Amino acid sequence: MENHPLNPSLPGVRLIQGWVRDEIPLSIELPNGLRLEGRLLWQDPEFLALERPDSPQPVLINRRAVLLIRPLG
């Protein structure tokens, strides 16, 4: 698996980082139709860490598995 660095000059990376910084609640949709809601704690080139209200531990979501990220707030 080739690992590319997170490129902060890309608009999508900057937008997601803004959501992390502002603690915006998000809905993340996966290919199987599962929709996860919470707020992102961090992002790296491979994963997004989603803090869910019903879980004490964050959920790691592979970036390649994400179909849609939508702000809720």
Strands ordered across the widest β-sheet: 4-3-2-1-5
State the helix count. Answer: 1
Number of strands: 5
Shape: globular
Low-confidence runs: none
H/E element order:
HEEEEE
Mean pLDDT: 94
What would the keywords be for this entry?
about 70 residues; 5-stranded antiparallel beta sheet; 1 helix; globular
Can you describe what's shown?
With 73 residues, this protein is α+β, with helices and mostly antiparallel strands. It has a single domain (11-71), classed as SH3 type barrels. The protein is 16% helix and 37% strand. It is built from 1 helix and 5 strands, in the order H-E-E-E-E-E. The protein has one helix spanning 11-22, and strands spanning 25-29, 35-43, 47-51, 59-62, 68-71. It has a 5-stranded antiparallel sheet. The longest helix has 12 residues, at 11-22. The radius of gyration is 12 Å and the shape is globular. The model has no long low-confidence stretch (mean pLDDT 94).
Summarize the structure.
The protein is an alpha+beta fold and 73 residues long.
Give the secondary structure arrangement, pairings included.
Elements: H1 11-22, E1 25-29, E2 35-43, E3 47-51, E4 59-62, E5 68-71
Antiparallel strand pairs: 1-2, 1-5, 2-3, 3-4
